[in-house]
């Protein structure tokens, strides 16, 4: 009987057999995919694993600290690389979504290249690529390219590393079960997916500090309100998006032209198709009230009610 839980030992064994010498670099993000990848490798090859958390500055509130704490508990001690300024420079002035993704991918590659040069015994690059990622990036035969997911297809070959992807045959729900089988906390196992380029693709148009801060604070509110309503684990993703459109508002008796925040909450099996969640009106109401009162510069909250397809889940 095929159960992901039963596969832990054989995945670890295969990794150990394949990686006989040299070290493995893994970029961890705090998500379930990269965490499970890192923990499997830690079991297979011990301290020949070099886990790196690259802080690109596009994480959500408190995410970097929480991720470091969780990984240490799981026996993985990541190296924290602060590349916030480098990433912000890379996307400055860029409006086109694919160009934004391309520059973020390029910056990741540059950061990794430096790490590899400083650690010449690194021979492999491990990635938490899942089966749907393989299909969506057009890596599978016959599939159309929809978005360039930054973690698929491997980094440029000039990195000179062999790619290890222990999860490329699994769907998300199976990886969540692997996480629990590895003794990782339930909170991690049921964390929503978060795109590699982070909040940068939840900001429509140019990425500015102001818009990033709005996406960061509004997203936290969306997640908090869903948890409060007991709905967080029932949905696939829940987040807030901001662009350049404005809506005139009144604060006190003053006119204020503020940003429009779009809230997106979707249900999905594997991210390939999705339906918008029919949230109760009172939950939508709390989200809207909190965002307009707690996040400076926001005068309107809208709810995204389009399925995938035709829309994708993330705005970019
Ligand atoms: P879309 O927006 O294409 O997203 O409907 C499908 C699922 O993939 C996630 N996503 C990403 N994951 N790197 C990732 O690891 C990426 O670059 C990326 N872009 C989108 C998205 O959050 C959704 O769950």
Descriptive notes:
This protein has 316 residues and is α/β, with parallel strands linked by helices. It has 2 domains: 4-189, 3-Layer(aba) Sandwich (Rossmann fold), CATH 3.40.50.620; 203-303, GMP Synthetase, Chain A, domain 3 (2-Layer Sandwich). 38% of the residues lie in helices and 19% in strands. The protein has 10 helices and 9 strands. It has helices at 8-18, 32-45, 63-73, 84-91, 97-118, 131-136, 172-181, 186-189, 209-228, 281-294; strands at residues 23-27, 49-55, 79-82, 122-126, 162-164, 237-251, 254-267, 275-276, 298-303. A 5-stranded parallel beta sheet has the order 3-2-1-4-5, with helices on both faces. A hairpin with a 2-residue loop joins strand 6 and strand 7 (254-267). The mean pLDDT is 93.
């Amino acid at each position: 009987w095929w159960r992901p839980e039963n596969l832990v030992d054989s995945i670890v064994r295969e990794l150990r057999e394949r990686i006989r010498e040299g070290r493995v670099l893994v970029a961890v993000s705090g998500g379930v995919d990269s965490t499970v990848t890192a923990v499997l490798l830690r079991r297979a090859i011990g301290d020949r694993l070099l886990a790196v958390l690259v802080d690109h500055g596009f994480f959500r509130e408190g995410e970097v600290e929480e991720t470091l704490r969780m990984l240490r508990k799981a026996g993985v001690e990541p190296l924290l690389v602060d590349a916030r300024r480098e990433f912000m420079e890379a996307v400055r002035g860029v409006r086109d979504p694919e160009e934004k993704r391309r520059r973020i991918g390029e910056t990741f590659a540059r950061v990794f290249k430096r790490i590899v040069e400083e650690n010449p015994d690194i021979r492999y690059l491990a990635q938490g690529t899942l089966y749907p990622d393989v299909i969506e990036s057009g890596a599978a035969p016959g599939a159309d390219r929809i978005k360039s997911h930054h973690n698929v297809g491997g980094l440029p070959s000039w990195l000179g590393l062999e790619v290890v992807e222990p999860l490329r045959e699994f769907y998300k729900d199976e990886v969540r079960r692997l996480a629990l089988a590895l003794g990782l906390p339930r909170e991690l196992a049921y964390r929503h997916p978060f795109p590699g380029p982070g909040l940068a693709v939840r900001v429509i148009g140019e990425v500015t500090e102001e818009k990033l801060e709005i996406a960061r604070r509004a997203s936290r509110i969306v997640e908090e309100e869903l948890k409060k309503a007991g709905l967080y684990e029932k949905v696939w993703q829940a987040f807030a998006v901001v662009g350049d459109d404005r809506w005139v508002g009144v604060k006190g008796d003053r006119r204020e032209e503020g940003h429009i925040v779009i809230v997106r909450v979707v249900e999905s099996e594997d991210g390939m198709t999705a339906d918008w969640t029919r949230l109760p009106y009172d939950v939508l109401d709390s989200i809207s009230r909190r965002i307009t009162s707690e996040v400076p510069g926001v005068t309107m909250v809208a709810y995204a009610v389009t399925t995938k397809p035709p829309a994708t889940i993330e705005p970019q």
